[in-house]
Specification:
Number of strands of chain A: 8
Organism (chain B): Methanolobus vulcani
Distance between the termini of chain A: 30 Å
InterPro entries (chain B): Thiolase, Thiolase-like, Thiolase_C_2, Thiolase_N
Strand content of chain B: 15-25%
Radius of gyration of chain A: 16 Å
Largest sheet of chain A: 5 strands, antiparallel
Number of strands of chain B: 11
Oligomer: heterodimer
CATH superfamily of the largest domain in chain B: Thiolase/Chalcone synthase
Number of domains of chain B: 2
Protein name (chain B): Acetyl-CoA C-acetyltransferase
Largest interface: A-B, 35 and 36 residues
Keywords (chain B): Isoprene biosynthesis, Transferase
Number of helices of chain B: 13
Shape of chain A: globular
Domain Thiolase C-terminal (chain B): 243-388
Chain lengths: 132, 390
């Protein structure tokens, strides 16, 4: 079971569902996951929301056989670091046959169920990736 | 700032210590180190204890006070006791805080300890507690595990530099080779490359024998100003450098997936502080939470060129008797990895080596040793350099 309370998940729901991150107008750097402070400009930065296209490529990946709590029924699953076209990288699952995933593979985002808090609990949704 | 020396050390046995509690192991290590140093409780000015997650592993916080109490240092003498946390680097950081307090002149005799009791919860719960060292909101929620994160480092290292699964396996084989001679080690059985490669896959390309185990244990050292160290022991070991560095909490935000920039930065600071270079180091204890982590560590600390850690390992250069013996204790892989204790255990191993008391693991003529302790997938790195000579 994924342990995350409803408010904790909900407050970043838009970022998770729609790949909304942030952008610093001062240095033109993009952030996903979103950051409220630009690490380069710090207090001088000017942060705004930014919706990513979600197109990107696989930087590195693994096939998970021993799952994290809450992911046991998904094994084997492909976990990867995806570099988005705008620059930032994120961690997500790549939905494909494990033997077909490759470093440098182009991927696009899909809206998927991440998990569920037990039989009657909240269902968590978010962004995973598929080969383009 | 004053020079600091280690005057006493002690590790408990590492392993699944079902008959001993968190407080039992801490007291055993603390009392052992104090006896080794020949100091009495009234002389102790402060204590620091590294502990990653008493809250999750034994549902106990307020660790500092608890251990002061059960060490007999709370009632009547009220010794200040502070818990330090930096995930798997908690022990190294507790040691660093202890060194600070002695170097500053605020305290004279200080205990730096580390402890974790990980087997009082089922292993999925332990894995989940460990996952808290990564970014829960942006890595954990997507199904990332710790082996998974290091597997992604390994995959990239293989892609970029041609590192092989066999080279990774050789790290585990070498560390078990060393660990069989360490009386405190969790696993004292030698293993082969074949057994590593045939063991179950946890997160491709990492097999279960590429991973450090879940372990109970505690370690402690006693620190003193170098000027008075000889009053307590004939073989004080001097702290030549203490360094620490931070990096992004999430692996996906790193400059380079195959380099732990925090290790590079902490290593550089440590070499500068000690006025030494990698070639001056006689042996090193690195943070091999996974086999790939040792390969990255020896590169990041300057013992191998970037990308050549696998080859250097395969050539036997990191074995006892090789160019730069790595993890003579057996490392996290064979000796075990009670996360809060590991950083202190590494220092205990170096002290035993520099004193010439390491038995069959002894590196001949060892004068200068290094420790390298990492938190998470590389967001914290702590590096220390120790010497027989002041």
């Amino acid at each position: 079971m994924i342990i995350m309370s409803v408010p904790r998940f909900w407050r970043k729901q838009i970022a998770r569902y729609n790949l909304v991150g942030t952008h610093c107008k001062k240095c033109d750097e993009y952030f996903y996951p979103p950051r409220n402070m630009c690490p380069a400009c710090r207090r001088e930065g000017e942060i705004e929301d930014y919706k990513f296209s979600g197109n990107g490529e696989v930087v590195t990946f693994t096939v998970i056989h021993t799952a994290a709590e809450g992911f046991e029924n998904q094994t084997p699953y492909v976990l990867g670091i995806i570099k988005l076209d705008e620059g930032p990288s994120l961690t997500s699952q790549i939905i494909c046959e494990p033997e077909t995933v490759k470093i440098g593979m182009k991927v696009k985002p899909v809206f998927r169920k991440l998990g569920q808090a037990g039989e009657r609990g909240m269902i968590y949704y978010g962004t995973k990736f598929v080969p383009e | 700032m004053r020079d600091v020396a280690i005057i006493g050390v002690k590790n408990t046995t590492f392993g699944e210590l079902w008959d001993r509690s968190f407080r039992d192991v801490v007291v055993e290590a603390g009392v052992g180190a104090v006896s080794d140093a020949g100091v009495v409780g009234e002389k102790i000015d402060a204590m620091f204890v590294g502990n990653m997650s008493g809250g999750q592993f034994v549902e106990q916080e307020h660790i500092g006070a608890l251990i002061a109490d059960y060490s007999g240092l709370a009632k009547d003498i009220h010794v200040p006791s502070t818990r330090v946390e930096a995930a798997c680097a908690s022990g190294g950081l507790a040691l660093r805080q202890g060194i600070y307090s002695v170097a500053s002149g605020m305290d004279d005799i200080v205990i730096a300890a580390g402890a974790e009791k990980m087997t009082d919860v089922p292993s999925p719960k332990a894995s989940s507690a460990l996952a808290a060292a990564a970014d829960r909101e942006w890595e954990g929620i997507m199904g990332a595990t710790f082996p998974g994160l290091y597997a992604m480092i390994a995959r990239m290292h293989m892609h970029k530099y041609g590192t092989t699964s066999e080279q990774l396996a050789r790290v585990a084989v070498k560390n078990h080779q060393n660990g069989q001679h360490n009386p405190i080690a969790q696993y004292k059985t030698p293993i082969t490359v074949e057994s590593v490669l045939k063991s179950i896959m946890v997160a491709d390309p990492l097999h279960i024998f590429d991973c450090s185990p879940i372990t109970d244990g505690a370690s402690a050292v006693v620190l003193a100003p170098a000027d008075v160290a000889h009053e307590y022991t004939d073989t004080p070991i001097y702290v030549k450098a203490t360094a620490q560095a931070s990096d992004t909490i999430a692996l996906h935000d790193r400059r380079d997936i195959t380099t732990l920039d925090a290790s590079v930065a902490a290593g550089k600071r440590a070499y500068e502080m000690a006025g030494l270079q990698p070639k001056d180091i006689d042996l090193v204890e690195v943070h091999d939470c996974f086999t790939i982590a040792e390969i990255c560590a020896i590169e990041d600390l300057g013992f191998a060129k970037k990308g050549e850690g696998g080859i250097v390992t395969q050539n036997g250069e990191t074995a006892i008797g090789g160019r730069i013996p790595v993890n003579t204790s057996g490392g996290l892989k064979s000796c075990g990895h009670p996360v809060g204790a590991t950083g202190v255990k590494q220092a205990v191993e170096i002290v035993e080596q520099l004193r010439g008391e390491a038995g069959k693991r002894q590196v001949d003529g060892a004068e200068i040793g290094m420790t390298h302790n990492v938190g998470g997938s590389g967001a914290t790195a702590v590096v220390h350099i120790f010497s027989r000579n002041r």
